[in-house]
Amino acid sequence: MTGQRGAAGHEEPTPAELRAATVRSLQGQFPGVRVWYGMATGSWWALVPLRNGPRLLEASTPQEIRDAILRARSLG
Predict the structure, then answer these.
(1) How far is CA 53 from the centre of its chain?
(2) What domain of life is recorded for the organism (predicted)?
(3) pLDDT digit string (tens) for 12-30?
(4) Which residues are bridge partners to 44 per DSSP?
């Protein structure tokens, strides 16, 4: 994918590129956690491995999924 040229002539990332960068960032912050954006649902998702088995989380924004991952890990 190629970004689009902005007003200043700089190439701006596409929405898909921004989502991919966000996924990489979140997975870098939380090794072992799978994060993705659901195109059909419009939600952010994470599969978090926990002591009692994996937990599937859903959120509206990257910040909300990050917070949900932190909460899930703190509980268990």
Answers:
(1) 21
(2) Bacteria
(3) 999 999 999 999 999 999 9
(4) 37, 59
DSSP track, 25-70? HHHHHSTT-EEEEETTTTEEEEEE--TTS-EEEEESSHHHHHHHHH
Please indicate, yes or no, if residue 53 is contained in any of the structural domains.
yes
Report CA dihedral (70, 73, 74, 76) to the nearest 10 degrees: 160
Whether 1 maps to a domain, the answer reads: no
- Show the CA angle centred on residue 26, arms to residues 22 and 32, nearest 5°: 140
pTM of the model: 0.83
- Tell me how many domains the chain contains: 1
Angle (CA) 61-63-69 rounded to 5° is: 105
Q: pLDDT for 22-61, tens place per residue? A: 999 999 999 999 999 999 999 999 999 999 999 999 999 9
